[in-house]
Write a structure and sequence with these properties.
This protein is of the alpha/beta class and 223 residues long. The protein folds into two domains: 140 residues, Rossmann fold (3-Layer(aba) Sandwich), CATH 3.40.50; 76 residues. The protein has eleven helices and eight strands. The strands form two sheets. Strands 5-4-1-6-7-8 form a six-stranded parallel sheet, with helices on both faces. Strands 2-3 form a two-stranded antiparallel ribbon. The termini are close together.
Amino acid sequence: MRNGLEVVLFNVGNTLLFPNWQRILTPLHEKRVRPDIEQLRSIERRTKREFDDQVTTGKVDRGFWWMFYGHLLEETGKADADLQTALTRNTQVSANWDQIRPGTREALDKIGSKYRIGVISNADGKIANVLTFCGICDCFLSVTDSGNVGHEKPHPAIFSAALEAMKIDAEKALYVGDLYSVDYVGATKSGMKAVLMDVSGAYRERGLPRVETLEELERHLEV
């Protein structure tokens, strides 16, 4: 295999599957507030930078999505802790991540014809069900879900569990995820190579290995 890689492991959220905003944002829609995708992506970029900085300095007060919705509610003039909690909880339900980009199955089939592929996801123990619903679970040889493992990324235990499931040494595996401090740092500290799936463009100016589509990842793997 090129680059000595034998295995490619994927994050799910914002990498393979994307939020069902219509469902997740129902509490906000009930208040007649409907942010568009550009506003959501702008807040995602801002939150990723802030969250990464907090993780790096060890000053994380809350999770990524709590921070994300804090910014969203401030921008929309609806700041409210109960609403922020409800939106965060909705986002943590695996079933609410059921939006799949056209061509995902085809791209995974191509990558899977050259590498053994699997999943590592911070989820609620049910991410395999969502992957099945979206028609791509059978692409993967293993699905490592933090809800089952008992550790979330960037903890090394979840990466170790996935590598053990794939029966592969860390240096022969690549991880693809969307959040620098959780996915990229977690994977590289575990001895793996890593690439960011940067659909929102949060890391365009950071000089990090990044792609914005699975098709771009295919080309990256051929270099």
